[in-house]
Specification:
The structure is a single chain. The chain is mostly helical and about 140 residues long. The N and C termini lie far apart (about 70 Å). The protein has 2 domains: about 1-45, no CATH class; about 50-130, no CATH class. It is about 80% helix and about 0% strand. It is elongated and about 80 Å long. It has 4 helices and no strands. α2 crosses α3. Mean pLDDT is about 80; it is low at about 1-5.
């Protein structure tokens, strides 16, 4: 058994030496490209998004949460547990159409509780980034 272990060890180290030789040959050609890629990756990762971009995403999250709440409102109206004035309903429909068009949403598609929680959490996190209190429940 000990002899087999030594043979395997020798074989592994032999292959490592071959690999090291190959790397020494190839590395000078790869190194500049690799370093450029690593620098670009680091720059991409370290870029902070602007307030404008954060606010745009916050607006989208806010609109999606509002839309989900309107879906709940319509469900309640259909079930008879909620009533709404016709003028308010008309204005709501216009606003719903604008939001759906802007973000490419089909209002008739059901939204899961997970999606609702996701958008509420996005909104809360972005509000915190923009300076709101971390424990604010105003979503």
């Amino acid at each position: 058994m000990v002899k087999v272990k030594r043979d395997l060890t020798g074989m592994v180290f032999g292959r490592l030496e071959i690999l090291k030789g190959y790397i020494k040959k190839v590395l000078p050609n790869i190194k500049p490209k690799l370093m450029t890629a690593l620098v670009m990756f680091q720059k991409e990762r370290d870029v902070m998004r602007s307030k404008k971009v954060i606010n745009e995403y916050l607006d989208e999250a806010d609109a999606r949460v509002w839309l989900i709440r309107k879906q709940d409102m319509f469900h309640n109206i259909l079930m008879g547990t909620e009533a709404i004035h016709a003028e308010v309903l008309g204005n709501s429909m216009k606003a719903i159409d604008k939001v759906c068009e802007k973000y490419g949403i089909d209002f008739k598609e059901p939204v899961s509780e997970w999606d609702y929680g996701y958008w509420c959490d996005i909104m809360a996190a972005l509000r915190w980034v923009m300076g709101d209190e971390k424990d604010s429940l105003d979503t």
